[in-house]
Amino acid sequence: MPIDKSDILESLSAQNNHMVGYTEFNHARLAAIYDAFNSLKQDGAFWLKTIANLGVQRIADLGCGTGLLTNQLAGLGYQMTGIDPAVEMLLIAKRKTHADKIQWRVGSSEQLLGTRHQLVIMTSHVAQFFITESAWEAALRDIYQSLNVGGYLLFDSRNPVVKPWEQWNKASTYRLINTSEGNVASWIVWLDKAAASVKYDIHYLFESDKEHLVSHNVLVFRDKDQLVSSLECNGFAVRKIYGDWHGTEFCQNSSEIIVLAEKISKNQPGTKK
Ligand SMILES: C[S@@+](CC[C@H](N)C(=O)[O-])C[C@H]1O[C@@H](n2cnc3c(N)ncnc32)[C@H](O)[C@@H]1O
Question: Is the entire prediction scored with pTM above 0.90?
Answer without folding.
Answer: yes
